[in-house]
Amino acid sequence: MSSAPAPPDPAEQTTHPERPRGLDFLRTVPKGVAQVDFQSSLWTGLVFLVALFVGGWQFGVFGLLGTVVATLTAHLFGVSWPDRVSPGLEGFCGTLIGVSLVLYLDVRWMTVALVVVGAIAGSVLTSALNVLLTPYRLPTLTAPFCVITTVMVIGGPSFHRIWAGHAGAAPPSATAPGTAMTWSHFWQGTFNGVGQVFFQNKWYVGVIFLVGLFVSGWMTGLVAFVSSLIGLLTGWALGAQAADLGAGLYGYNSALTGLALFGTFIAVTPVSAAYAVIGAVSAAGLTAGVGNLFRVVGGHTLTWPFVLVTWVFLVAVPMFNKIKRAG
């Protein structure tokens, strides 16, 4: 999800021509899935796809649908292949649009149509935001996904064919309230925090995603794990509902924020590590506020806390002499 392409996957020896062959496009799709967590690795993307299908066939199929449509849209409209499309930077918002909409609306032909339309709109919005944000050295992150999905779930109740019989997605605390934590809440919640980036609430699916991140690099996997734990501990310290913490709802925005602020957009130093920790804590704290703000549409927090916190922390970097942008 970076504003510039990640370094090429060392496992691949092929070049990326301006006019790609079919195999080049096939490689790009898993990379688009991997870019949800800032990775441009084909192998990480394939592990992520396995995780989605383990979570449920519908998540794998609709995630692939969104990724393919978004990537193809960007390519057909002429977005730079080597700089943007090939590293997967045009696909990841489509991935999240596909997974989120099938979660909220269930498996229906109407959901298929909405994922296609949403992925196309997300591709256009990605380019628009890039034009606006690049002069300020700000990445789009998952903002296109957040905007498209939020608009759809806000407008959904007005359309019978969309909302009638929709699956919904109430938080776990709706049926299991209380703040008393168990050991299971802690360890499962940490892994779930990694999986909830893709709306997955099974701890073993989170483990598979974490394996994919370790495939990209040991530091990448460690940062995601620790940041998810920081988000969970922040929610616990503030008295969040135990069931929501165990489901990873306070960890995934922190996991993304930690990855963004330590190594992806900001150079790795002891000071930037502290900066990333503060960002992860902030993202967890903002999660409840955004959820309450969006309660009218089911409290769908999405990745808004991660987007808002990361933008603020990146804008602030020029004022801090001890923190440097990566690259």
Automatic annotation (TrEMBL):
Record region (Disordered): 1-21
Top-rank taxon, per record: Bacteria
Location(s) in or outside the cell: Cell membrane
Pro residues composition-biased segments: 1-10
UniProt xrefs under InterPro entries: Ammonium/urea_transptr, Urea_transporter
Transmembrane regions: 46-77, 89-105, 111-133, 203-230, 302-320
Keyword Coiled coil appears in the UniProt entry: no
Keywords for this protein: Cell membrane, Membrane, Transmembrane, Transmembrane helix
Pfam families: UT
Sequence similarity: Belongs to the urea transporter family.
Protein name per its UniProtKB record: Urea transporter
Protein species of origin: Streptosporangium pseudovulgare
Organism classification: Bacteria, Bacillati, Actinomycetota, Actinomycetes, Streptosporangiales
